[in-house]
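Regression test case RT-17, inverse folding.

Input:
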């Protein structure tokens, strides 16, 4: 079996014309479009109404066997903006998603004391978090601002990782980092992936970190980056201070 499609990517709703190119004496066709739909037509026209990446297969009855094209059709949310890596997080995402003890967070994105060697712009982010009544806090960098799934994010093209520099004020501070992961069942849209670096124990020296994205689909990215910390992972401490620099999609 063999087949082609007239388009392999586009925004929802996406209509795709599939064309059978099987050779030999074929009597029956069984299409699986990857979204729960199927067809027995030879050359079906299919409408994808939801956004995702779909694997399409065609099984023919005859000498041709089965042909499967993995991750063949990419359907984007309506109005998704495509952006190309590499880029700095501040180009498309905003640190607007404050969570937990929001009144206990102090955020300075233009801190300029003791600049890191190799710093490109002479400033970086300083975060102070005094553990409050919730015992945890964090910030999501979102697209657009304050978006928890009410609208689409961006499609990121060409990125295989998120990179950043970080250090603690004294060393020993524990903070978790991730990219993606905004997924609220009550909202229309969600992140198409979630990549978790886990909790990091900081040194008081600048250290380079990477979140691997190579196996993820960046079709709709709402939460480009986030940190979260809690009192349970920082026993004996009343607050933590840490620094971030050059958060980038590469």
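Golden output:
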């Amino acid at each position: 079996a063999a087949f082609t499609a007239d388009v392999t990517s586009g925004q929802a709703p996406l209509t795709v014309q599939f064309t059978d190119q099987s050779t030999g004496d074929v009597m029956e066709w069984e299409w699986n479009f990857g979204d729960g739909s199927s067809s027995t037509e030879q050359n079906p026209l299919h409408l994808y109404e939801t956004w995702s990446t779909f694997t399409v297969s065609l099984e023919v009855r005859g000498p041709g066997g089965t042909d499967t094209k993995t991750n063949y059709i990419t359907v984007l949310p309506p109005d998704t903006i495509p952006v190309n890596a590499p880029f700095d997080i501040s180009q498309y995402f905003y640190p607007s998603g404050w969570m937990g003890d929001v009144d206990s967070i102090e955020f300075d994105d233009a801190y300029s004391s003791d600049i890191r060697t190799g710093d490109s712009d002479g400033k970086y982010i300083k975060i102070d978090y005094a553990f409050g009544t919730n015992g945890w806090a964090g910030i999501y960098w979102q697209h657009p601002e304050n978006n928890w799934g009410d609208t689409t994010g961006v499609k990121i093209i060409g990125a295989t990782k998120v990179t950043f520099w970080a250090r603690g004020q004294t060393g020993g501070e524990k903070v978790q980092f991730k990219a993606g992961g905004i997924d609220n069942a009550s909202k229309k849209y969600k992140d198409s992936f979630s990549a978790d670096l886990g909790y990091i124990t900081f040194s008081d020296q600048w250290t380079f970190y990477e979140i691997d994205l190579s196996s993820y689909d960046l079709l709709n990215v709402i939460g480009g980056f986030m940190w979260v910390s809690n009192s349970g992972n920082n026993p004996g401490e009343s607050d933590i201070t840490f620094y971030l620099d050059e958060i980038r999609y590469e």
